[in-house]
Every structure is written in C-alpha cells, then in structure tokens.
# Entry
Amino acid sequence: MCKNCSKSDLALLDPVLEEFAGDNHALVAILQRAQEIYGHLPCDVIYRIAEKRGLSPAKVMGVATFYSQFRLKPVGKNLILLCKGTACHVNGADSIAKALKDELGISDGETTADGLFTLNEVACLGCCSLSPVMMINETTYGSLTPEKAKEIVRSIKAEGERQ
Ligand code: FES
# Structure
C-alpha cells in the first residue's frame, strides 16, 4: 500500500463485499457503494476491494480512474463544478476560473486546506443560456462575473464560519 494511505474503517465495506460476492461483474457497483460510504475512494479501500475480489489493486484503480464519477481524493464540504463547456468558455469561463483560483488558492481538482471547497472544472452543465455557470453542491449560479463568483464563495465561507 502507498505510504500516504489512509486508515479507513474497512468494516463498513464488508456488507457490500458480501452482497456482491457471487457477482463477477459488480466492480463498478461496489466502487459506487464504497464512495457513498467514504465520500471518495481511499487507497486502503481500493486495496481491500482488490483483495476480496481476487483482483490486482492496479485493476481496481484502473476502473476507478476510468469513470469520472469516482473520486480518489476527499472532496470539500462545498463542491464547485465550474463549467468549461463551449458556451461558458465563450462567455468568460476562464476569467471565472482565475477568480475562483485566486480567491480559494487552489487549482482544478484541489481542495482548500480547511476542507471547505473543492474546485472541479467540468464539461457542459446543461444550462448554457445562463453561461458562464457554476454549481456549488445543488445550487446553480449563472451569468457569472469574476467578482460575482468571488462574492458567492466569500458568502459561503462566511456562512460556514458562523455555524
Ligand atoms: S457550456 Fe456551460 S452550461 Fe453549457
């Protein structure tokens, strides 16, 4: 296992592995359930699944990295999905990305040190008429400007500090 490997409560995974024990095609389903349990797919969970399924860790990791739905790193409390699709790109998504990166001090795919925000740049979010667009958890924010994007993040941060 890698030296940075987490120490997950692997007992939580046992019922899932038992449920799919007889199903040779259930790896994706197992990874989905594991991500529901742990919030992402830690290294030790990947190894446990590999061991129990009789697969190499590389094989399980290969499947986990192939599908964009799987996350190998923990995600912050607020997951920002910044659209970099064509309409948003044309309407200034790059300047929104720069504003968010400046405000949060992180790059695409990273999480702030306080665990409050993760930034993910994604393809079209399906609401191009509002471009440029980002989603934070379940909420969509459209017609963004760099300053508006910063304000939204600041107000969520302030809200978090009040709690
Ligand atoms: S291109 Fe951004 S929502 Fe479609």
